[in-house]
Specification:
The complex is a heterodimer of chains A (about 550) and B (about 575).
Chain A (H helix, E strand, L loop, with lengths): L4 H7 L14 E19 L6 H16 L14 H6 L2 E9 L8 H5 L10 E5 L6 E5 L2 H12 L3 E3 L2 E13 L5 E7 L7 H13 L4 E5 L14 H7 L9 H13 L3 E5 L9 H4 L4 E2 L6 H4 L7 E2 L4 H17 L4 E3 L7 H5 L2 H10 L3 H18 L3 E5 L1 H4 L10 E4 L6 H6 L3 E4 L2 H4 L25 H5 L15 E8 L9 H5 L4 H9 L11 H17 L10 H4 L10
Parallel strand pairs in A: 1-2, 2-4, 7-8, 7-16, 8-9, 12-13, 13-14, 14-15, 15-16
Antiparallel strand pairs in A: 1-6, 3-4, 3-6, 5-6, 10-11
Helix pairs in contact in A: 2-5, 6-8, 11-14
Chain B lengths: L10 H5 L13 E19 L6 H16 L14 H5 L2 E10 L8 H5 L10 E5 L5 E6 L2 H13 L2 E3 L2 E13 L5 E7 L7 H13 L4 E5 L15 H6 L9 H12 L4 E5 L17 E2 L6 H4 L7 E2 L4 H17 L4 E3 L7 H5 L2 H10 L3 H18 L3 E5 H5 L10 E4 L6 H5 L4 E4 L2 H4 L25 H5 L15 E8 L9 H5 L3 H10 L17 H17 L10 H4 L8
Parallel strand pairs in B: 1-2, 2-4, 7-8, 7-16, 8-9, 9-12, 12-13, 13-14, 14-15, 15-16
Antiparallel strand pairs in B: 1-6, 3-4, 3-6, 5-6, 10-11
Helix pairs in contact in B: 2-5, 6-8, 10-13
Classes of the chains: A alpha/beta (about 550), B alpha/beta (about 575).
Chain lengths: ~550, ~575
């Protein structure tokens, strides 16, 4: 077992500026200065390297040149100047695959079925200036290692250096599903916003983009064969994602080690279908909305209808074809029964077929999941489909727990796999006040604001039995966009979404077995935020710069 | 005095389903019709003033340019193509004439904007007829004309380059209820480049804010260059790049003044001054002392040694140097959150107190007196934070303006001392609240002033609440502040806009909407229309490059009222 020297130093209160996020599972650092040679290169010792690996190497080389991040200490690293001037020069980093590995593109590795991906890597940076080495079993592992390598360096008057050589990392994630969810239906986001977000996600080794692409408010996704839905349901003809846009986003994500799980939320949250298919939607825009939906506008698919069921299965099939991922979600949150109780069409259909609402829902869900499975997808749903409804779901269904972190145990008791997305830890939109009109004294339903510190304390295994722990695939932070748009996307997401990236990389504890520690993490998270800002992401400052330069001095008890 | 049009006509606005939503703040008197009006391809603004001041001409040029470049489209279900016919046949306006009333003096806009706070004239009338090709803007001052231009710019929607409206003819007679409509900006916790401040000033002028209250320094950093005390910024700024040079300050003040905004600089003292210790350690007690929570309200601890003669001289030099170079009639010495244990445990301070045989409260009283004396000598009305008056009972000059910040309920106590006040209550107006604890190692902590102050909350503020009729004249207005512990250039716009516009309308319209109805609240029906107008303002801000947040899903924006509770 290797010693975790750097961690011990951090926990001992010695300010160490190592800016790696998420923290590697095994890390050794020294105290020598090392700087990059002016002609530093990254060499790819892989036969017939895939284009996306070569591109990743170029991006890394570029970030290392352009980051220009000064160390976050008083003086911004000036006290290192004599050590840096004398430091040995690192001429190269060599990437290679372990013997026997087969060479696939990063994207092919990233979109493999969850549980079968290889993200581990080994990185050695000697203090002497000898070539650094990065090895992995897959191109995806090499990408993760490159990301770590980029985070080792600071700038001092044009020198790119570390004062912690030698550095040795052996790393692998605790969970394969480390996600971020973006809602592009309440307000629209341009392809460029999504790509910029994917870049930032990849810098903290997030592996899964959960794309909540449509909802009751708008339907921006163009689906071949179902073009009328977006034509009538998008906010405007320019606020759409064309099939080409989707391919572009999926490719961009894949090249950065990110799989895209698209969600078509059904049968609730579907008011927008009434624009193109008014017959398919019960209680469409019915008033008062609060009786029929959790937020305006009301409207849900008439799932008891065979026509609607077949239409939905057909639409899901076409969406499944647009996304190469092996996982796809049919949502399923916040189904409102009053909407159907007051819908004459639904009541007539139920009477005709002799079914009750739950039986009809079960039939509908089987059709929906069947469509996904035919396309080779693992189906995902929100927790209510399992906990509140009595429907038969495929055994391999992945369940996203969102209402409360406490609900994970109930899902596990039903032996379904779990992705943690609890509102009480991970909702990035909470705390910004009520957005519903004419409600001047109200706050957000999920107050208070979820700080990075709160998210960081999340325990993926809380309340689960040992036997159930294998059901946890990971988790994600989420942005619902009632009050967000491209204007504030970056500040509301970053650096907070990095919290869960580390939680699900490191697991229930830090690599040494000690609990995760926000006090230790804060200086590293400052590094993340500042490096993101250098790269054009508008991440918020977590504290005054005075505090960022003096780790620990702005702790509540210091 | 401009004749105000009777209030009942205003109902025309409230009942309209579309068209007249664009104005923010809402004019005190407004009548609208239902005819389409557009600007001619050759539209021009003519200044009908002999020897017009250059800053007014510059403002006219900016308005003219924005009337061409603004791309904001009407927010309407089904899209703006439904307006094509109306625009095609719309009445054409060929020019806007700017004129001063007969006896009005011709002065620089900047001069009008920086006059004594109670002597400014911001009223204007704007007439946009549908029977002639000229619109007319009249005022008693160039500042009034500038406010009218801001209104005129907000009237128009874009359709393929044509600027039009659907609610002509319009008659507006407008003036603010309160002269002090401010934004307090902390540039010390985190630094903002000059360009961020200028962009903020532009956005402020869109909603007719009149004051930038610049909280320029604090314990964390001292970004202000003071030539007589050079080490303040040399040692106290975050870096040599994170400094406002005297030239920067002059540029910012001139830029603001030319946009109808006066700049009040706050040099917060005697607390919140740790950053002075980096250049002048002899003047600071308990600098960076631990645990900070014993000696300060936030880290780092450090306060001026108010009982020291040398420190008093130092403070007088600082205030004299800064206030003598600043245009305008107001300067603030801050004064919030002084910490008594800091001085109680400071040997130097205790020795000074023993020598002169006075208490710390007496020393504080004397220190404030010295500082206010310097401000008075430089022609400034002194501002001070409410705790100096309410917690410490410090003697202040009669013309002092008190910044009420701890809570809105403190205003009557200040008024009962017959001091003028501005409202900056943390329970309504603090833009930074609700973003979680920023202190480290406080895992489950929230912000001290939770919850988040929504635009709706801020908008419901009543400037005259709990004040007697004779006290009402003491209220100069108010301001919403951003404290920058968790804000910097990356999120400045989204955290400030469009919420800051709430305060702008509260202090423009006064205790009620122009028709006498409450602005928001359980028994009002105005919330829907107000939100619709605020959505428009938000999209106009984004159109002009200000990253204002979305207040609702666009679905709601296009359907006023459908997303009400």
């Amino acid at each position: 077992m290797r010693q975790h020297i750097a961690l011990i130093a951090l926990l001992g209160g010695i300010p160490v500026a190592l800016g790696i996020w998420p923290i590697p599972r095994s890390l050794e650092t020294g105290t020598s200065a090392l700087k990059l040679a002016p002609d530093f290169t990254i060499e790819l010792n892989v036969h017939n390297p895939p284009a996306d690996l070569s591109a990743a190497v170029s991006r890394s080389a570029n970030y290392i040149k352009t980051d220009k991040l000064e160390q976050l200490v008083v003086g911004r690293g000036a006290s290192n100047s004599s050590a840096v001037s004398r430091a040995p020069q690192l001429k190269s980093l060599t990437l290679s695959l372990e013997p026997g590995s087969t060479v696939h593109s990063i994207m092919d590795e990233a979109i493999k079925e969850i549980g079968t991906r290889s993200e581990e890597y080994k990185l050695d940076v000697p203090a002497s200036g000898e070539s650094a080495t990065l090895t992995a079993n897959s191109t995806l592992g090499l990408l993760r290692g490159l990301t770590t390598f980029e985070q080792l360096w600071y700038d001092l008057s044009g020198d790119t250096y570390t004062i912690q050589a030698p550095i040795s990392v052996i790393d692998t994630p605790a969970y394969p599903f480390r996600g971020f969810m973006l809602d592009t239906a309440r307000n629209f986001f341009n392809v460029s916003d999504i790509k910029r977000t994917l870049d930032a996600m990849s810098w903290v080794k997030i592996s899964q983009f959960h794309w909540h692409v449509v909802d009751s408010q708008s339907f921006p996704l163009q689906i071949p064969g179902f073009m009328e839905v977006s034509q009538k349901g998008a906010y405007s003809s320019s606020m759409v994602y064309t099939p080409e846009d989707v391919q572009d986003i999926v490719q961009y994500a894949g090249e950065r080690g990110i799989d895209v799980m698209v969600e078509i939320d059904i049968p609730g949250h579907t008011s927008v279908f009434s624009e193109s298919h008014p017959d398919f939607v019960a209680c469409a825009e019915a008033s008062p909305w609060a009786t029929f939906a959790s937020e305006p506008p009301a409207g849900q698919l008439r799932f008891a209808s065979a026509t609607v069921k077949n239409f939905t299965a057909g639409l899901l099939t076409e969406v499944a074809k647009m996304f190469p991922s092996s996982i796809m979600s049919t949502g399923g949150d916040e189904l409102n029964t009053e909407c159907y109780a007051q819908d004459p069409e639904t009541q007539a259909t139920l009477k005709e077929t002799g079914q009750d609402l739950q039986q009809a829902l079960s039939v509908f869900m089987q059709a929906a999941q069947g469509a996904l499975q035919t396309q080779g997808k693992t189906p995902a749903v929100w927790e209510e489909m399992v906990l509140d409804n009595n429907v038969t779901l495929s055994n391999d269904t992945v369940v996203l727990v969102w209402i409360s972190s406490m609900d994970a145990a109930a899902v596990a008791a039903k032996n379904f796999r779990i992705v943690h997305a609890p509102s009480d830890y991970f909702y990035l939109d909470c705390g910004a006040g009520e957005w519903v009109g004419d409600d001047p004294e109200a706050n957000s339903w999920c107050d208070p604001f979820k700080t990075w510190q709160k998210s960081y304390t999340f325990d993926p295994l809380a309340n689960l039995t040992e036997a159930q722990t294998s059901l946890v695939l990971g988790g994600e932070q989420l942005l619902w966009t009632e009050q967000s748009s491209p204007a504030n996307l970056d500040p509301i997401v970053w650096p907070r979404a990095a919290s869960s990236a580390e939680v699900f990389w490191t697991g229930a504890t830090l690599p040494g077995g000690e609990p995760r520690n926000g006090t230790e993490a804060l200086p590293r998270l400052h590094d993340v935020a500042f490096r993101m800002a250098q790269r054009g992401i508008r991440a918020i400052p977590l504290q005054p710069l005075w505090c960022a330069l003096r780790p620990g001095k702005c702790n509540v008890d210091s | 005095m401009v004749a105000l049009i009777p209030f009942p006509l205003l109902l025309g606005l409230v009942l309209l389903s579309h068209g007249a939503r664009a104005l923010w703040p809402i004019p005190r008197s407004l009548t609208t019709g239902s005819s389409a009006v557009k600007l001619s391809k050759t539209f021009a603004i003519h200044v009908d003033i002999a020897h017009p001041p250059q800053d007014l001409l510059d403002a006219v040029a900016r308005s003219t340019s924005r009337l061409q470049t603004d791309k904001f489209q009407r927010l309407v279900l089904g899209g703006v193509s439904q307006d094509i016919t109306a625009v095609h046949t719309a009445h054409e306006i060929k020019s806007l004439i700017l004129a001063l009333t007969a006896s009005a003096p011709v002065r620089n806009l900047s001069e009008e904007a920086t006059m004594a706070i109670n002597s400014r004239s911001e009223s204007y009338t704007l007439s946009l007829p549908t029977h002639q090709a000229q619109a007319i803007l009249t005022a008693n001052s160039t500042l009034g004309l500038f406010r009218g231009l801001a209104t005129f710019e907000q009237l128009w929607y874009d359709l393929d380059g044509t600027k039009y409206l659907l609610n002509g003819p319009l008659e507006i007679a407008d003036e603010p209820a309160f002269p002090y409509r401010g934004f307090s900006f902390d540039t010390s916790r985190n630094f903002y480049p000059v360009s961020d401040i200028l962009r903020t000033i532009d956005a402020m002028s869109m909603v007719k804010l009149s004051i930038l209250y610049w909280h320029i320094i604090d314990s964390q950093s001292f970004p202000l260059e003071v030539s007589e005390l050079p080490y303040l910024s040399v040692k106290g700024a975050y870096s040599t790049n994170e400094v406002y040079s005297e030239q920067d300050v002059q540029q910012i003040v001139a830029y603001a003044n030319a946009r109808g905004i006066d700049v009040i600089m706050e040099l917060d003292s005697p607390g919140h001054t740790t950053a002075i210790s980096y250049g002048y350690p002899q003047h600071i007690a308990c600098a960076n002392k631990s645990p900070w929570a014993t000696y300060a309200s936030e880290p780092p601890a450090g306060q001026l040694r108010i009982a020291s003669n040398a420190t008093i001289q130092f403070a007088k030099t600082l205030f004299g140097s800064v206030s003598s170079k600043l245009h305008g009639t107001m300067t603030s010495s801050g004064g919030d959150e002084v910490n008594l244990p800091c001085w109680a445990e400071d040997k130097e301070t205790q020795a000074d107190l023993a020598r002169t045989n006075i208490t710390i409260e007496q020393a504080l009283d004397s220190f404030i007196g010295e500082v206010q004396g310097v401000l008075k000598k430089n022609g400034k009305v002194p501002f001070i934070k409410s705790d100096m008056v309410l917690t410490h009972n410090v003697t202040v000059t009669n013309d002092t303006v008190v910044v009420v910040w701890q809570k809105s309920a403190d205003a009557p106590a200040v008024a009962s001392r017959n001091l003028r006040l501005i409202h900056q209550p943390s329970d309504y107006f603090y833009l930074d609240c609700g973003a979680g604890e920023w202190l480290g190692a406080d895992i489950l902590g929230n912000s001290w002033c939770d919850p988040f102050k929504t635009w709706q909350r801020a908008y419901s503020f009543d400037p005259l609440a709990n004040l007697t009729e004779p006290q009402q004249h003491l209220v100069l207005g108010g301001q919403m502040p951003i404290w920058s512990e968790q804000t910097d250039p990356e999120n400045l716009d989204p955290i400030v806009w469009p919420r800051l516009a709430s305060g702008a309308e509260v202090f423009w319209t006064g205790a009620t909407l122009p028709d006498g109805s409450p602005r928001l609240g359980p028994n009002t029906t105005s919330g829907t229309q107000v939100l619709a107008r605020l959505h428009e303002l938000r999209f106009r801000l984004v159109d002009r490059g200000v990253r204002a947040i979305a207040l609702q899903p666009k679905w709601c924006v296009l359907r006023p009222g459908d997303c009400d509770l």
